[in-house]
């Protein structure tokens, strides 16, 4: 169905695998279109309650395909039509999105990883704000997510120097949630994603929506967001199930509704 990515469901989790390994899964125009379609599919399929994004081969993603940039191309066009909608679709998806960082994440590949809700890194993973090495500035959301994850000073250092951050450093700096061995990587990602996919999806979506809004809001606004979110969550089937399971001293079985 797709040429540059693969899309499959495993249990209640959808998996998107960037699949141009000879180019370290660099983005080209086709991949932008296919990512948009795959993310949309994962968002609208009610049986999918978590999304994993990973890469085929030894890399996660090396960012924009530098061998396909047409001379005189308007980069803002590529961002506005390709990367920006993709980043917004990930952030706007009211389901957990996990980036399984199997290898190097460079340039916009790093930005893609940072836009996800969780990052699980293999010990082979690394992160490079590679833009500066080709005279560019971080894009596709890096200037937004990077300082929020690592703080302003570290963000400045990583963006300006473009040094490679290895997996252990990424964990230390707060770029990744979990660091796992290469051999356990897929199993760890599957287990984590399926765990999330069996949780109260509506509540997770609300947490995601309002945590993201909290950065641009004052306390009064956040208190009101919480009240609105709690009304919606409080009327959900999963809340009823959670309460019943607690009172009946059994494990809850959430449906995401
Ligand atoms: O342009 C616009 O539209 C504006 C938007 C920009 C967004 C961006 O993402 S700009 C930043 C683009 N990305 C980069 O600058 C990273 C370029 N790649 C690298 O620096 C290195 O490849 C890595 C550090 C990621 C990995 O290094 P290494 O030594 O492990 O692998 P390698 O040998 O450099 O790469 C392996 C192959 O992949 C190689 O091809 P070959 O020689 O085997 O035929 C290499 O050319 C290719 N490759 C790697 N990255 C890209 C790529 N080909 C096209 N585009 C790439 N980004």
Automatic annotation (TrEMBL):
Keyword Membrane listed: no
Pfam family, one: ECH_1
Keyword Isomerase annotated: yes
Keywords for this protein: Isomerase
GO terms assigned for molecular function: isomerase activity
Coiled coil: none
InterPro entries per the UniProt record, alphabetical: ClpP/crotonase-like_dom_sf, Enoyl-CoA_hydra/iso, Enoyl-CoA_hydra_C
PANTHER family (UniProt xref): EG:BACN32G11.4 PROTEIN, ENOYL-COA HYDRATASE
Family listed: Belongs to the enoyl-CoA hydratase/isomerase family.
This protein's name: 2-(1,2-epoxy-1,2-dihydrophenyl)acetyl-CoA isomerase
Organism of derivation: Fictibacillus aquaticus
Lineage, highest ranks first: Bacteria, Bacillati, Bacillota, Bacilli, Bacillales
């Amino acid at each position: 169905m797709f040429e540059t990515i693969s899309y499959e469901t495993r249990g209640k989790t959808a998996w998107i695998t960037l699949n141009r390994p000879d180019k370290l899964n660099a983005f080209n125009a086709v991949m932008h279109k296919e990512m948009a379609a795959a993310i949309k599919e994962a968002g609208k399929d009610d049986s999918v309650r978590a999304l994993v994004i990973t890469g085929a081969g030894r890399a996660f993603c090396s960012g924009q395909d530098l061998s396909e940039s047409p001379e005189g191309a308007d980069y803002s066009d590529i961002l506005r039509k390709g990367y920006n909608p993709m980043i917004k679709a990930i952030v706007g998806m009211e389901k957990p999105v996990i980036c399984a960082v199997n290898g190097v994440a460079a340039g916009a590949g790093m930005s893609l990883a940072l836009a996800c809700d969780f990052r699980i890194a293999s010990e082979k993973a690394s992160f490079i704000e590679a833009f500066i090495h080709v005279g560019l500035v971080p894009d596709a959301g890096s200037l937004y997510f990077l300082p929020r994850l690592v703080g302003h000073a570290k963000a400045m250092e990583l963006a300006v120097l473009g040094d490679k951050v290895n997996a252990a450093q990424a964990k230390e700096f707060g770029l990744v949630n979990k660091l796992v061995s290469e051999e356990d990587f897929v199993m760890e990602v599957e287990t984590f994603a399926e765990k999330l996919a069996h949780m109260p999806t509506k509540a997770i979506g609300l947490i995601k929506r309002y945590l993201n809004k909290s950065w641009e809001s004052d306390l009064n606004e956040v208190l009101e967001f919480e009240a609105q979110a709690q009304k919606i969550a409080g009327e959900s089937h999963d809340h009823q199930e959670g309460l019943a399971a607690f009172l009946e001293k059994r494990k809850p079985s959430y449906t995401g509704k």
